[in-house]
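Example for tutorial group B:
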């Protein structure tokens, strides 16, 4: 008997899966996978058979993206590096922190940490009995003093926003490991095209792939990287917490990888040109960028970063406090006021009222963040046009 209209609509004819390698990454836009038999399904769940069952658990497009980042992060690392894909940087960060902590555990974290991570530690994990000490992580003695027997995580950021503080990765790794803690590094501002923290002692690297890795401001995603053992534990908790990446977004993030080193190298060179071009402007009180020889962490950046790549974010503090900084943002013509960073377009934001709004005045001061700091994420435009845009805005102050 010919199946009915609805059945034929649902069960369209199978087309054979080609056994050729496509040049583009296939997007497996499916929630679930079919099995030949009920036993195959059982065996997959038991772990006696490999494959896919449900895309919150694993999806080949998402795996291709995460393994692509792992191949970039793990080049000079002994032993295999695995990646776990996430729907956002915060999904990666929250899952990793929950994997590594329990009620009664303690975290040591830099004071100028990304606002979302600060909020997670102080308002969410705090409710579950995880305590965090925020320290000046440039002072290794302060980090050592903060460590406790119950410290399970030392957190770091390769480049911290907006002061562009560079983490002493080998120093922090040694302290964490002495204390038996896991050293986790948020390397979003660096990307593997500048620095690979696993080479310098980090146990886990996390990224907001929304930024440089995706690189086009059109997708959110995250990724965690580390040993197969650690990533197995992170995967287990990702599955239960549910922050899994969608295959469509994984496609865009994977596409970003092909041009990551090209984009980042150019963005870094342009950022250094912008930082240098603004240093002597009479309306400028301070420029923070690790590529400047006057930056406190320039030496560390030379040691840990690939040659000539110091990051592509420049923080400018004009004279005249908060009002002058807000005016600077508003008077830029080419550079747009927007959150996020790492994309093709240069973006600007006033730090104290945006990315670090979770920090109160005391926390801002402790982290060395001035009320007037303005963060510029340098994109792919011509650097002369970017310098000219900031200079014309500064000239009006
Ligand atoms: C943006 C960002 C995050 C959060 O990533 P999302 O993709 O927005 O969730 C975490 N850390 C740093 C340093 C970031 O810049």
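The residue assignment follows.
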């Amino acid at each position: 008997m010919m199946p009915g209209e609805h059945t034929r609509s649902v069960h369209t004819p199978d087309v054979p899966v080609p056994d050729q390698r496509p040049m583009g990454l296939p997007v497996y836009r499916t929630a679930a996978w079919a099995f030949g038999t009920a036993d195959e399904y059982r065996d997959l769940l038991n772990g006696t058979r490999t494959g896919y069952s449900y895309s919150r658990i694993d999806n080949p497009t998402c795996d291709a993206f995460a393994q692509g980042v792992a191949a970039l992060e793990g080049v000079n690392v002994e032993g295999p590096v695995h990646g776990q894909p996430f729907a956002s940087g915060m999904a990666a960060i929250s899952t990793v922190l929950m994997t590594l902590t329990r009620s009664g555990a303690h975290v040591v974290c830099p004071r100028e940490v990304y606002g979302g991570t600060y909020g997670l530690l102080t308002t969410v994990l705090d409710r579950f009995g995880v305590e965090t000490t925020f320290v000046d992580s440039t002072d290794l003695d302060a980090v050592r003093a903060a460590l406790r027997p119950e410290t399970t995580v030392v957190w770091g950021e390769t480049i911290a926003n907006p002061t562009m503080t560079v983490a002493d990765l080998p120093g922090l790794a040694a302290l964490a490991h002495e204390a038996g803690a896991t050293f986790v590094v948020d390397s979003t501002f660096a990307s593997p095209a500048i620095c690979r923290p696993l080479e310098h002692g980090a146990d886990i690297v996390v990224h907001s792939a929304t930024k440089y890795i995706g690189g086009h401001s059109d997708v959110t995603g995250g990724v965690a990287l580390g040993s197969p053992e650690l990533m197995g534990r992170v995967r287990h908790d990702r599955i239960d917490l549910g922050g899994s990446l969608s295959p469509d977004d994984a496609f865009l993030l994977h596409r970003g990888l092909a041009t990551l080193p090209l984009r980042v190298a150019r963005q870094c060179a342009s950022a250094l040109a912008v930082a240098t071009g603004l240093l002597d402007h009479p309306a400028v009180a301070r420029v923070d960028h690790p590529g400047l020889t006057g930056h406190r962490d320039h030496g560390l950046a030379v040691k840990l970063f690939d040659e000539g790549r110091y990051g592509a974010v420049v923080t400018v503090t004009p004279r005249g406090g908060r009002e002058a900084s807000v005016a600077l943002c508003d008077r830029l013509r080419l550079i747009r006021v927007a959150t996020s960073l790492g994309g093709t377009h240069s973006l600007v934001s006033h730090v104290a009222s945006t990315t670090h709004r979770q920090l109160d005045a005391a926390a801002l001061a402790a982290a060395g963040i001035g009320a007037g700091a303005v963060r510029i994420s340098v994109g792919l435009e011509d650097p002369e046009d970017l310098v000219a845009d900031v200079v014309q805005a500064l000239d009006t102050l």
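The longest strand covers residues 151-157. Compare this with the pattern of hydrophobic and polar residues in the output above.
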